[in-house]
Amino acid sequence: MFVLTDATNPDSIKKAVKNVEEHLEGAGLNLLLNNAGIMSHVNLDNVDSEDMINVFKTNVVGPMQVSQAFYPLLKESADARSQEPLSCKKAAVVNISSVLGSIERTSVTYDPAKQVVSYRISKAALNMLTKCQAEGYRTDGILCTAVHPGWVKTDMGTEGALLTTEQSANGILKVLGSLTEKENGILMAWDGKVIPW
Ligand SMILES: NC(=O)c1ccc[n+]([C@@H]2O[C@H](COP(=O)([O-])OP(=O)(O)OC[C@H]3O[C@@H](n4cnc5c(N)ncnc54)[C@H](OP(=O)(O)O)[C@@H]3O)[C@@H](O)[C@H]2O)c1
């Protein structure tokens, strides 16, 4: 596994692609997981353009640029398994999103005390990016799905969260193993449930 030091920095992305390419020795990349994300605790009254741009850059522009940069390696993997249906074994982009980006679920998830508006907006945009990638890369044989990891005990999720990182990661691994054409361009939760856009 390779970790990108800054998923919004073109030089850092280029370096990561080069490292991965050298490691793969021509084999192609079967799975790109865009996990980096930030959240700021702003509400409708105090959110400003700086925060919006900052959060959007990390949560949307980053995954878009990283996906573009890794596309040739993903395509290589897809081409090597051209007869196989879409799957994470063949080639896939998985964007770690959030139920907070689901417009349909907002009336249920909205908390006036924790609005995190820039985060919500950015994850809704990431969901749209995922849908566009799914449509655009389908014929290349690359599956694209957004995954909500659940409410997890991390710096972002806090100790009060419901899931341990292990529970969330195990669930996500199970979901990744089950992805097919049917799940191309949708938002799925860590437990395999589909979340409406
Ligand atoms: N935790 C939850 O309950 C929850 C719920 C729904 C969705 N998510 C999503 O799950 C993903 C992981 O979140 P988390 O809970 O692990 O959050 P976290 O504890 O705040 O960790 C975020 C991670 O993203 C990295 N990161 C941030 N900006 C980056 C950049 N520009 N380039 C490279 N790495 C960057 C951070 O690296 P540094 O430490 O080096 O800054 C850190 O490792 C995020 O996309 C988040 O939106 C989390």
Automatic annotation (TrEMBL):
Quote a single Gene Ontology cellular component term.
Answer: cytoplasm
CDD domains in the record, alphabetically?
carb_red_sniffer_like_SDR_c
A Pfam entry, by short name: adh_short
Q: Which GO terms describe its molecular function?
A: oxidoreductase activity
Family per record: Belongs to the short-chain dehydrogenases/reductases (SDR) family.
Q: What protein name is recorded for this chain?
A: C-factor
What is the source species? Answer: Pelobates cultripes (Western spadefoot toad)
